[in-house]
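User: Hey, my collaborator sent me this sequence without any context and asked if I could get a structure. I don't really work with proteins. Can you help?
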Amino acid sequence: ESDTASEISFQFNRHKKTPSIGSHSSDMASVSSVSGSVLSVYSGDFGSVDAQGMVEFALDYDEKNREFQVHVSQCKDLAVVDEKKGRSDPYVKTYLLPDKARMGKRKTSVKKRTVNPIYNEVLRYKIEKMVLLIQKLNLSVWHNDPLGRNSFLGEIEIDLASWDWSNRKLNWYPLKPRSLSAVNGVDHRGVMSLSIKYVPPGSLGKWPKNPPSGEVHIWVKDVKDLLQLRPSGVDSFVKCYVLPDTSKKSYQKTRVIKRNTNPVFNHTIVYDGFHTEDLKDACVELTVWDHEKLTNHFLGGIRLGLGTGLSYGISVDWMDSTQEEVAFWQEMMLAANEWIEGLLPLRSL
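Assistant: No problem. I've predicted the 3D structure and written it out in structure-token form, which is a compact way to encode the shape of the chain:
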């Protein structure tokens, strides 16, 4: 049923009460270091002001240096965040969509106590023109708060495929409220087809006890509609951990499927060492990555578990399964020795 199979043991001290803070897999830690807020264009928004005002900027592509340039000139008539003091401390932030993590964010300096800030700064992205043309530019304006409670002031989104690249002049654009799709968390990254199965201890034979400990089988079939980072597609592979175990023994990965946004992996992983009660506290993390020589880029992932926020009585941020992921895991728990099929959307984790 699969071209490759691997078996590894689930290792965790079930009585341990003081694990290191932030028990992420090493890969998730590396994702968060790509950018200060790769998880959402609107991360850290604590404000409730209405978008108003305008922003002046120009776009250009430097063919010689293969560089996309956003010349942010100024803003005017921005919303006032601190009404008591009648002030805003605005800055401008940009992303290339749909993959915020890959290119990261760029932002201007903060201009204090003004609703008419002047920047005259250039935000730069090293990117091939063909790749740029399948992106959208999200440019947003924010109020900077010393405690990190930043407030959204407005945005504009531009489809770069239809942009007039002969237009290099500074122009004014009205700031708009955040897009409805972003507010609702719509962040389409693809869909993973997989099956999972739990084999309880001794369920396959009484003597000798077979298996000696419980097993979780994970069959990664394929992924559809991955983000197309290059005109040729992506070179993708899947990583797997069973959290809270982030050791090398827990880590498994598929082979790389090149130049394909709909890769077929057909890869099975078996984790043994499970007690039935472990299923309430463990979480299977499957993440999809684009393979490159210098660094791999996160494309999306899923977390299979009960989504309680707790693991062995300890609060953890990775136990955050969605309703679909929880239902999938629960179905596996209730149907021992049966393959449970699922089609789950990848998310930003």
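In plain terms: The two ends are 29 Å apart (CA to CA). You can pass these tokens on to your collaborator as they are.
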